Amino acid sequence: MAKRRLETMEENRAKLVAAARKAFAEKGYSAASMDELTASVGLTRGALYHNFGDKRGLLAAVVDQIDSEMASRAQEIGSRSGDDWQGMLAEGAAYIEMALNPEVQRIVLLDGPAVLGDPSQWPSQSRCLQATRQAMERLVEQGVVKPLDAEAAARLVSGAALNAALWIAASDKPEDVLPKAQEAFLALASGLLAKQH
After folding, report:
1. Residue 92, Cβ neighbours under 10 Å: how many?
2. Are residues 73 and 168 both part of a single domain?
3. Short-list 86, 92, 91, 75, CA closest to 144
4. Which of 21, 54, 118, 153 is 20 to 30 A off residue 187, Cα-Cα?
């Protein structure tokens, strides 16, 4: 009985996140109606409040889901390079490029910071930072990167990628900003190299 109840709660949670993701992408956070959203999946506002506390909590869950997907995609792209340094650069460039996706722009890069505050404090960004720190530790140990504090270097590289994505999302011409942002990101990150790579 308890297992079934837990499964139902997880199903309801997943339904609400999926519906919110669609509503926030189409209408934006402020215009999305929680009554319409819950009704679209056959649930009540009570289910929303029980699972997420409020609309802001639901946005946090949606942002976490999308940002985690972005990080996974970027890591997958980075892993194809076969080299830790090139992989880290490819991850950052891929994350920046994802800012062209309208769903990412609206939910993660525009509404997310406006409603949830500083993205560097989000759980998804903290997980990303830890992965970057571990990669930076390996690069320092390998002598690829200057002997810097790995966390400091990871925070600056992660921050540069995030801020480039935020800039693209806020731009009137994101496609024009993307190559500039990626070029500057690569130039900044290359300053960490112990020697030309």
Report:
1. 25
2. yes
3. 86
4. 118
The pTM of the full predicted model, rounded to 2 decimals, is 0.89
Tokens of 130: 């830890």
Three-state DSSP class for residue 149: coil
Whether residues 106 and 173 share a domain: the answer is yes
Instruction: State residue 23's pLDDT score.
Output: 96
Q: How far apart are CA 106 and CA 11, in angstroms?
A: 25
Residue labelled with tokens 């920046």: 96
| Alpha carbon distance 169, 99 (integer Å) | 6
Q: What is the spatial distance between Cα 136 and Cα 123, in angstroms, rounded to a whole number? A: 20
Residue pointed to by tokens 């500057």: 184
Question: What is the average pLDDT value for the chain, to the nearest integer?
Answer: 93
Query: How does pLDDT run across 133-188, given as a tens digit for each residue?
Result: 999 999 999 999 999 999 999 999 999 999 999 999 999 999 999 999 999 999 99
Asked if residue 150 is part of any domain, the answer here is yes
Q: What is the average per-residue pLDDT within 109-122?
A: 94
The domain tally of the chain equals 2
